[in-house]
From TrEMBL:
<protein>
    <recommendedName>
        <fullName>Tat pathway signal sequence domain protein</fullName>
    </recommendedName>
</protein>
<dbReference type="Pfam" id="PF21345">
    <property type="entry name" value="PcRGLX_2nd"/>
</dbReference>
<feature type="signal peptide">
    <location>
        <begin position="1"/>
        <end position="27"/>
    </location>
</feature>
<keyword id="KW-0732">Signal</keyword>
<dbReference type="InterPro" id="IPR045793">
    <property type="entry name" value="PcRGLX/YetA-like"/>
</dbReference>
<dbReference type="InterPro" id="IPR006311">
    <property type="entry name" value="TAT_signal"/>
</dbReference>
<feature type="domain" description="PcRGLX/YetA-like central beta-sandwich">
    <location>
        <begin position="139"/>
        <end position="500"/>
    </location>
</feature>
<dbReference type="InterPro" id="IPR048330">
    <property type="entry name" value="PcRGLX/YetA_2nd"/>
</dbReference>
<dbReference type="Pfam" id="PF19501">
    <property type="entry name" value="PcRGLX_1st"/>
</dbReference>
<feature type="domain" description="PcRGLX/YetA-like C-terminal alpha/alpha toroid">
    <location>
        <begin position="506"/>
        <end position="919"/>
    </location>
</feature>
<dbReference type="Pfam" id="PF21346">
    <property type="entry name" value="PcRGLX_3rd"/>
</dbReference>
<dbReference type="InterPro" id="IPR048329">
    <property type="entry name" value="PcRGLX_1st"/>
</dbReference>
<feature type="domain" description="PcRGLX/YetA-like N-terminal RIFT barrel">
    <location>
        <begin position="49"/>
        <end position="129"/>
    </location>
</feature>
<dbReference type="InterPro" id="IPR048331">
    <property type="entry name" value="PcRGLX/YetA_3rd"/>
</dbReference>
């Protein structure tokens, strides 16, 4: 969703080529061609080296380093194996390695690797078993008293363990570049409605409750800081901040997470409306005012390039060499050497100490400046989409700073204050104080839906599952990423452009599709892109069309904003030529039917950067915003709706770790790891909330810790995803997680009808389902489409349990069977079902496992002729839209729905991987 200019061929073609077959758009797709290069050598041996390349062109650039994940085939690498990285021409690259997952036999399943020194200038690397090279400058971590000190060999950071200063100081070569890194929160007690305003603001400051070093080098160090924002006796809005340092780097990265725990339901002065949310540093200003420099990035490579006291454009000329030096950020010669008509009047030239760039929409920013507080602002420019990057300092050094996804997660803002004084203050506003306050109140008054019966009626008209007090944001979270450079002098224009680019798109190393596929991770349900036959190429064209269309719709429909960026819409309204953003459960998708998995499997098989970045943004969103991390419903997610937290269906199927696993293992992202770890005990949420409370036919059911009704589909797959992840990561609850996996697998398999039984009564104390004596049939078309297919494929490969495998294969065999076949097997048919195209991958899985040609044939029949996007009736084209039918011109494919896209994508990818050699035609 984040635009990458050299990768935009498809999107531009999609907009320009309305009503044009998509295969035409594939011409010149440089990104896909580059990705295809990574699919060579698909027949590598298990212990062969892994080829590592950059996700995008450009290499490391101005970034500090890169961390990447690599999977290994079962048994290929022992648990204590060391690894070495080298460039394609054999030059060693220092490497730090740690395990992120293990196979059941104890061998490595996933490893994470951090590299920094030696990455510059190379485009390809080889990862091999062996002794890693040591960095010339190791990053070191030391602790004493109430502080943690990290030294990269170039910069030194002192981090607080208590108090309000997260980063007490950043020094370079003995010079302090920045100090007092802290968090700022502005709260407003009510909302000004109408044409009057009287709301008061108050400031809260981040207060640390604890800090610890999670990694201590030699290549990469990570420090985690937790706390709350506090004013007086009140602390709220918990934060978790991680700081990342690489050996030899002059920069560090910050990953900043807040969890909303405010109350917006109260009356006047009692609400918690965020007016501003920011990260602030102080920057010592040592140089003369004419040697102090301001750099603020605009759109693309654009920059505001100024000095605090400008000596260009004056009535009197100090000299061309002097003017040139100031523009380029170099220390000026002694003013005694200038034209003295300028030197003697320096005190009459204003100093401009304050600058503000505000991005209040995805499409426009404004930039202004003033001399100092108490005096008026003057406009200094504006544009479309700012990079979210700036610099303040002087010839003796200064701080570069940047906020990733700046315009995508508007409203955002950059402030520089006091640059004319002894100390400048930099604030990166994640929520701009110039925007309207953050309003997370529920969007309607309930409309009289006070009973379950009334709420079900509402569900039948707007598809919204409403319930009073359930549409709360209490417990949702948001993560932001920031970068900082401690510069020894004002950087050159070229360096600043490179730094801004590293903020926008952090360089990411990655293994290619062939190496990812040979490891047989994620159930072995993907294989590298293959266009070797016309039939396969046709499916690949369709997959490309669907991704490009959804990515283009995110831009065309402006699916951006602090809480919205990363999600996509659920269903289209053909009459309005608009997605149903305002119609109940048809609005934001919130992972409905697994678009997250579709995107990640699409990336794993293609290596395409545009797919990775789209999936990355979705993972950041759905794992944070669509799930609860505090409060009564912690561990549950919210069903699709007009607001991400609005619907009353709070379920495992949304919060599931299944959707987070690929991003975690590919990047070793600690925040996503935290989210998954927190889900290990989420079976306890069924005590708090019965997901079937409105439709349960048993009026006497009450949640009982020894008899919790938990479904074998959307419920169990979410639990299994968390347990599997904890087990293979060897987390603190790994033993419990493994036991839960095995006990639930055993007792699902022991049911009279296995998965077809639908649900069972689960005992929290034993981790087992009660085995029913009476066979029943309870099958839903939703059961398998929220990660159950993927979980079962993984678990069958990991745990030798023939009964469980048979139970799953039975479900796979009979979902798409005829009603007569279902009845002959189970005594009754499965009733009215949907999503046959998506479930074709169950036929493919069973067919491949059993070598059953009839099932394989049915898989392709259901895929090409079922519901969803059937071959015979789907017109794989877009239609041009113009005013007055729509707000902005663009394209539409009114037949596209996100449900169908996700299921078509997963079925196509998995069918091709499992039985692609049996594809007709």
């Amino acid at each position: 969703m984040s635009p990458i200019p050299r990768r935009n061929v498809l999107k531009a073609a999609a907009v320009a080529g309305a009503a044009t077959p998509f295969s035409w758009l594939l011409a010149g797709n440089a990104q896909q061609a580059a990705a295809a290069d990574k699919t060579d050598k698909a027949d590598k041996a298990a212990d062969d080296p892994v080829d590592i390349t950059w996700l995008e062109d450009g290499g490391l650039g101005a970034a500090a380093g890169s961390t990447f994940g690599v999977p290994w085939p079962k048994g290929a690498q022992r648990a204590d194996q060391k690894f070495a990285l080298a460039t394609a021409d054999g030059k060693d690259v220092p490497l730090q390695t740690w395990a992120t997952a293990y196979w059941p036999d104890g061998s490595l399943k996933w490893t994470a690797h951090a590299a920094a020194e030696g990455l510059d200038g190379a485009t390809a690397y080889r990862l091999t078993a062996g002794e890693p090279a040591a960095p010339a400058e190791k990053v070191t971590v030391s602790e004493s008293g109430g502080k943690i000190t990290v030294d990269t060999g170039v910069i030194k950071a002192v981090i607080g363990k208590d108090g309000g200063k997260l980063v007490r100081s950043i020094t370079r070569g003995g010079t302090e570049i920045a100090r007092d890194g802290r968090l700022v929160l502005l709260r407003q007690g009510d909302i000004d409605d109408g044409d009057h305003g009287s709301a008061k603001w108050e400031r809260f400051d981040g207060e640390i409750s604890g800090a610890k070093a999670e990694q201590k080098g030699p290549v990469r160090a990570v420090v985690r800081i937790d706390g709350k924002h506090r004013k007086g006796g009140r602390g709220w809005l918990p934060f978790s901040v991680r700081l990342y340092f690489y050996a030899g780097a002059d920069s560090f990265r910050m990953v900043h997470t807040i969890t909303f725990d405010g109350d917006q339901t109260g009356g006047h002065e009692s609400g918690d409306f965020i007016r501003g949310l920011g990260v602030r540093f102080s920057v010592p200003m040592r140089d003369e005012a004419y040697d102090r420099h301001i750099r603020i990035a605009g759109e693309g490579k654009g920059f505001l390039t100024e000095a605090v006291k400008g000596i260009t454009g004056l009535r009197r000329d100090p000299g061309a060499a002097v003017r040139k030096a100031q523009f380029e950020g170099e220390k000026l010669p002694d003013p005694a050497t200038w034209d003295q008509r300028v030197t003697t009047r320096l005190h009459l030239i204003p100093t401009w100490g304050d600058y503000t760039l505000s991005q209040l929409s995805a499409d426009g920013f404004t930039l202004r400046k003033r001399t100092k507080p108490g005096h008026g602002w003057i406009p200094a420019g504006g544009g479309g989409r700012a990079s979210g990057f700036g610099y303040v300092g002087g010839a003796s050094g200064g701080l570069s700073f940047g906020l990733r996804d700046f315009w995508e997660k508007f409203p955002a803002q950059l402030d520089i204050r006091g640059a004319a004084g002894d100390e400048a203050e930099v604030t990166l506003w994640l929520w701009s104080p110039e925007a309207q306050p953050m309003d997370l109140r529920f969007y309607h008054d309930g409309m009289g839906q006070d009973t379950y019966a009334e709420q079900l009626e509402g569900l039948n008209i707007t598809y919204e599952d409403y319930e009073p007090k359930f549409g709360t944001p209490y417990g949702i979270a948001r993560t932001s990423e920031l970068m900082f450079w401690a510069n020894g002098a004002t950087p050159s224009a070229e360096t600043l452009v490179a730094q801004a680019a590293a903020v926008r798109t952090p360089p990411q190393l990655a293994a290619g599709p062939a190496d990812l596929a040979r490891a047989k991770v994620f159930g072995g349900l993907f294989a590298p892109v293959d266009r070797s036959t016309a039939a396969k190429a046709k499916i690949e064209d369709h997959l490309d069309f669907l991704f490009t269309y959804h990515k283009g719709q995110a831009e065309q429909r402006r699916w951006y904003g602090f809480w919205d960026y990363g999600d996509i819409m659920h269903t289209y309204d053909e009459d309005r030529h608009q997605w149903r953003y305002d119609v109940g459960g048809y609005a934001w998708d919130n992972s409905e039917l697994s678009p997250d998995l579709w995107l990640w499997y699409a990336y794993l098989r293609s290596g395409r950067a545009d797919i990775f970045r789209f999936a990355e943004a979705m993972t950041r969103h759905t794992g944070e915003v669509d799930a609860y991390h505090l409060g009564t419903w912690a561990g549950l997610g919210t069903r699709h709706g007009v607001q991400h937290f609005a619907d009353s269906a709070k379920q495992q199927r949304i919060s599931t770790a299944v959707y987070r696993r690929p991003y975690y293992y590919l990047t070793a992202d600690e925040r996503v790891g935290d989210i998954m770890s927190a889900l290990v005990d989420s079976d306890e949420t069924f005590l708090v909330l019965d997901p079937l409370r409105k439709v349960r036919t048993d009026p006497d059911y009450e949640p009982d810790p020894h008899a919790l009704s938990i479904g074998f589909g959307t419920d169990w797959s979410g639990l299994a995803g968390a347990w599997l992840t904890e087990w293979e990561r060897r987390g603190p609850k790994a033993e419990k997680a493994e036991a839960r996996l095995r006990s639930t697998m055993e007792t699902i398999a022991a049911q009279p009808n296995g998965f077809v039984q639908g649900s069972g009564l689960y005992d929290l104390s034993t981790g087992k389902y009660a085995v029913e004596t009476e066979a029943k049939v309870s099958v839903s078309h939703l059961s398998a489409v929220f990660g159950l297919v993927e979980m079962c494929a993984e678990l069958i490969d990991l745990i030798d349990m023939p009964e469980f495998k048979e139970a799953w294969l039975d479900y796979c065999r009979y979902f798409n069977a005829t009603k007569a076949e279902q009845k002959a097997r189970y005594g009754t048919d499965f009733g009215s079902l949907l999503l046959f195209q998506g479930h074709s991958r169950l036929d493919a899985y069973a067919g491949a496992q059993l070598k059953d040609e009839a099932l394989i044939k049915r898989a392709w029949q259901k895929f090409s002729g079922g519901d969803g996007y059937p071959d015979a009736t789907t017109d794989w084209r877009t239609v041009k839209l113009e005013g007055p039918d729509v707000l902005e011109p663009g394209v539409e494919a009114a037949w596209v729905s996100t449900n169908s896209t996700a299921q078509y994508g997963l079925a196509a990818i998995q069918n091709l991987a499992l039985v692609g050699d049996k594809l007709p035609g």
